[in-house]
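Here is one chain, start to finish.
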Amino acid sequence: MLDTFEKLESDRQVAFMLGLSETVVDLLISSSAYKDINNAMKACWEWIENKRYSGDEIYYLLDDGTEFTGLFMQMQDENEPLKELVWGCIVDAISFTNWRAYEFDNEEYLPAPIENVDESILQQFLEGFYEIKLINKVVVKEFINYLKDSNTSLKKDGIMNFLKGLQ
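Its structure:
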């Protein structure tokens, strides 16, 4: 899977991780951080669609410098195993988007938590994603094939319509 993923253009890689995360995010609907999660996901989609946010702006959603907010801190409050897996996928996807945003901005220096992010994060992401729902292995295979088509739009609405058809 990593080989196929690495062959995708960088925005398609981001769309792959974000799209898959969108299929499980509602498992956190009861979380007090759900609004923050959705805001961060929305910012990442806007980055794919029109490069609206900088790497620093996306990073701030992960770590705002406080011990209470920012997704890195909020995810530590979760203690249900299934929801921990969902958090892991979401934070991996946003971190990956953040890394790509910094790369797009030609940033030389990255925040420490983002320094080690690269395509290899997919393995960690998928390990958690596969444990969330049995159908997820099929979803991953179909979705990556969908994104390999260079005519596939990277708009969130189109991607989510495709993914809903797989669920």
